[in-house]
Amino acid sequence: MSRTQTVPIALRSGSVRHRGRLRQWLLVGSFLGPALLALGALVVYPIVYTVIRSLFDRSGTAFVGWENYVTMFTNDTTFTAIRNNLVWVIVAPVTVTIIGLLLAVLVDKIGWKTAFRLIVFMPMAISMLAAGVIFRGMFQESPQLGVVNAAITGVQSIFTDQASYPGAKPREGVGIEADQGIIASTQEVTAGETVDFPLIGVKRSALPEGSSEARAASAPGDTQISGTVFLDVVRGGGGTDGELEAGKTGLEGVRVDAVDVDGSIRGYATTGAGGTYTIDGLDAGSSYRIALPASNFGEGAAGVSWLSASWINVVVILAYIWIWAGFAMVMIASGLSAMDRSLQDAARTDGANEWQVFSKITAPLLAPVLLVVFVTLIINVLKIFDLVYVIPPGASKPAANVIAVEMWTVSFGGGNNQGLGSALAILLLILVLPSMIVNVRRFRAERG
């Protein structure tokens, strides 16, 4: 009797356990199911499909095997993109991490650090597209458009007193001539004489502000040569060619050289108000040719061609540093705030200076945070696209090319070869994976 009663009890307990496990699996599935479905749809499926698509031709109908990968590694544009990505990985993460570390440590010592951090972090609120537009405008070559070159030319103008009058030419028939951009007297002049330079071809807009009316130079001494450099044009017309008259403008800031017969420069002067000059220290009775160097008639102080192929990578990386330095600073500052300050205080008590405290205590304690920031930035720069696509003008785009831009260009930007584009996407995935694995292991170690 007891045995017949035991069997149903065992069956019922097994059924209860089975239902309990089923409820647990259903509960786990209800939480993980949507996440796994989204992960599969957004990550796993695109990766698998991209691998398969990279083995087909541009139309996706003919199987070509490894041909796209062979094409990718024999293409000059791909090599340029890989080289630029390597430069990005070496330069950008290291620079941003160092700047973030320095800002976090130094700002921690000031009273208004919250406001400073907010200002430095503010570029993170700007989209990459907007930041690219900002930097492309800032680094325009024309000083009238680009603020960087405007600042450079402004500094150049402070340290030089030589003006520039592009397009200037000598008035014909007045004893001066032009040769390879140099305007000089046709005859030799003896010390103690006067030589004027009536010029034409200078636009009124090229004249410096405050230019005064031309006037006759003072009579030279026995060891001097003097004269006036002026614009031989009267506003509204009239006047006598080659003559100093009312209404003609003196050209200030023009260098004037006294050139000996052997071609050496024996003296020089710069025209002042009214265009007058006086060259001193010449040999009495000696003859010279008076010349206006070609540098007087160039375009003047000019900036750097920042958006050219030679400099474009520097500009794009600077834009990236400007955006991400605030991110690195905030991340490192959070680690700094969680640090045990008693170790630093003890080191200072023992006589350590600030550099020793920073290098021996602060930096090693921040090493885990620095590693996270550095690896995150590496992953980010390997995928860089927006800035490289927006900042370079058309002629400089090949020099600034990176893998992500090359992938987009080949696939959708006119190449219409999604087989080769998929191969580039797989290459980018392979390059990013090591950094992602390091990050995942780091997170696991911190949790453990």
From TrEMBL:
The chain crosses the membrane at residues 25-48, 86-106, 118-139, 311-336, 357-379, 420-440. It is a multi-pass membrane protein. InterPro entries: MetI-like, MetI-like_sf, UgpAE/MalFG_permease. SUPFAM superfamilies: Hypothetical protein PA1324, MetI-like. It comes from the Bacteria. The keyword Plastid does not apply. CDD domains: TM_PBP2. Keywords: Cell membrane, Membrane, Transmembrane, Transmembrane helix, Transport. It is found in: Cell membrane. Its main location: membrane. Pfam families: BPD_transp_1. Residues 82-439 form the ABC transmembrane type-1 domain. The keyword ATP-binding does not apply. Belongs to the binding-protein-dependent transport system permease family. PANTHER family: BLL4140 PROTEIN, DIACETYLCHITOBIOSE UPTAKE SYSTEM PERMEASE PROTEIN DASB. This is Sugar ABC transporter permease. It comes from Leucobacter alluvii.
